[in-house]
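Annex B. Sample input.
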Amino acid sequence: MAIRTGTAPDSWGVWFPANDRQPPWDRCLDEMQKAGYDGVELGPWGYLPNDYEILKSELDKRNLELVAGTISGDFTNEESVEEMCATIKKIAGLLIKFPSAKYIVMIQDRYTDELTGDYCLPRYLTGEQKKVLYKNIQKTGDLVRECGLIPALHPHVECYVDTEEEIEDVLNNTDIDLCFDTGHNIYSGGDPLAFYKKHHGRIPFLHIKECDPEIVALAHANKWTFPKAVAEGAMCEPGSGSIDFKEFFDFMKSIGYDGWVVVEQDMFPLDDFGKPYEVAARTRKYLRSAGI
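Annex B, continued. Sample output.
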C-alpha cells in the first residue's frame, strides 16, 4: 500500500482553459516535474493538450502520470448537466487510454462570478432544488462509471455542496463518492481529519490544500467571495496552516490507503509566473517530511 503524490494545474494558478494570467501548459508540466511530483490532473478541459499522442508524449518525457480529469457545471440546471455529460464523454475518451487515470472530479460551479465576484446563483436551495441536485449528481456520476472511470464529487467553497452537513446530505442521497479537499473543508468550518476518519470509506481520492486561519477569519468577517479570499492569500502552503498532515497521512497509512493525493494550491490570478514553482517545490519537500 502506498500514497502517491501528484499536483494539478490549479497549483500554477490555472482556473480556465485559456487566460493571459496563467502560465503556458508546457512550462506548467516542466515545473511539476522539477518540483518532484509523480502525477498530474488535466485541470480545465482544454488547458493541457487533449490529443492522446501529444499528451502521452509530453507526460512520458517528464515522467508524469495522468491521474484524473475535472468537470464543472450547475447540477441544478438541466441544460448545464447536459453540457457536463457531453464533456464527460470527451474527457473519458482521453483518460481511459491512460491506465493511471481513474477519476473524473465533479464540481458544482461556484455561485459567484469567478472574475467579478458578483452573485449569479442563489446560495441556498429549496427542498425540491436539492432533489434535483442529488438526481443530477447521481446522473453524471453514473455516466462517468459507464465510461469506465470513477466519479468523485469535489465539495467546494461557495457551492451547493460545501459544508460538512451539505456533503453528508449528498452522501446520504447518492452513491457517489468524494474527492475530498482538505483546504475547502477547513475554509467552510470543518475538521478535515475528523471528517476523513468518519467517511474515508467514501473518499477514494484527495486534494491536499491548506488555509491561513487569520485570512479565512477576515474573509468570513468581511463576506469576501472565494476568489477575493484566494487573491488575499487564504489558501496557504501545507505546513503553514492548521492541519497536521503528518497525523493525516499516518491515519491514511493505517487504513491501507493505496492511491493518489493531489496538491492544489489555489492562487489565481497570478502576478508572478515564478511563484507557483517555488511554492510547489517547498510543498513537496514538506510533504516528504510529513511522510509521503
